[in-house]
């Protein structure tokens, strides 16, 4: 799978993905993530990517011509699923993460300021929000999507079993986990987990998962 991120802050994306599971997935060649500087598609030599809104009002609006040029350059045949991060988009949940993890090519377009010129919608396939609140840009939402979906790519997690029982699978929460010390400030570990009785442990864990 390849993920291209279009942003004014490519270092934010690269830095955040240089750790833990996303870093491992990239090293193993299971996902190829590239962060592109939107400014490199600016049409003037000052690298202008935004301008004041028609009709007046506060803030700056990101230019459609710059974003369109970037999209065309990295995906000229429009094979990729193009997503723009936006607080008014489809709300991200585990179902949407799964759907996106099946795509071969994804593009994540990150806005800043007051967002993009509305005409950008002609060139994207979907708007996605990570929640009902407003962030200062699309970079953190893009990272949330990348993190959530890379861990679903087969081979990324060391143990695929760990996906099976996790929270949101079958609309059930994960079961509670315990490790050493066996006793902590008067709190003990459920007896059954110390029993070595695998069938009983499985039964107990199943009983602990709750509808969400
Ligand atoms: N950009 C600003 N806020 C956002 C949000 N909640 N989700 C996606 N993109 C955003």
From TrEMBL:
GO terms for cellular component: cytosol. Homodimer. It is an enzyme of class 2 (transferase). GO terms for biological process: tRNA N1-guanine methylation. GO terms for molecular function: tRNA (guanine(37)-N1)-methyltransferase activity. Keywords: Cytoplasm, Methyltransferase, S-adenosyl-L-methionine, Transferase, tRNA processing. It is found in: Cytoplasm. This is tRNA (guanine-N(1)-)-methyltransferase.
